[in-house]
Specification:
This protein has one domain (about 25-124): 60s Ribosomal Protein L30, Chain: A (2-Layer Sandwich), CATH 3.30.1330. Helices cover about 20% and strands about 30% of the residues. The protein contains two helices and six strands. The protein has helices at about 45-65, 85-90; strands at about 5, 20-25, 25-35, 70-80, 100-105, 115-124. Helix 1 (about 45-65) packs parallel to helix 2. The longest helix is centred in the middle third of the chain and has 18 residues, at about 45-65. It is globular, with a radius of gyration of 14 Å.
């Protein structure tokens, strides 16, 4: 099976040995996206961080030839379940019609001190 690493120019560089996304078998597997902008900064607040994660995901999916409407499954990692409502409201604006299947998991800590990280599987 052929695999293609997806890493668009100008996107934040991975902080470890992994591909930002892999296209294989008609699917795109998007690694967990931290809320890091092109300058390397993380915005303040759960809503802004959620939006940045999804903007990063959107750019990776575009580089793979698809979009957010192709996403079939997301996993959201948050550091405080009390922020679920804020995250959910921001997240919902990116998937207004047919939201993908989703799991949300509270974790004790995320890389770079982020409060949210989102990974996805999409149809290629």
């Amino acid at each position: 099976m052929k695999q293609e690493a997806i890493s668009p120019a100008g996107a934040p560089k991975p902080i470890a040995p992994y591909s930002p996304a892999i296209k294989a078998a008609g699917l795109v597997f998007v690694s967990g996206q931290l809320p890091v902008d092109r300058s390397g900064a993380i915005p303040e607040g759960m809503a802004a961080q959620t939006r940045q994660c999804l903007e990063n995901m959107k750019a990776l999916l575009a580089a793979a030839g698809c979009g957010l409407d192709s996403v079939v499954k997301c996993t959201v990692f948050i550091t405080n379940m009390d922020d679920f409502g804020t995250m959910n409201e921001a997240y919902g604006k990116y998937f207004p019609d047919t939201p993908p299947a989703r799991s949300t998991v509270e974790v004790s800590r995320l890389a770079r001190g982020a409060n949210v990280e989102i990974e996805a599987i999409a149809l290629a």
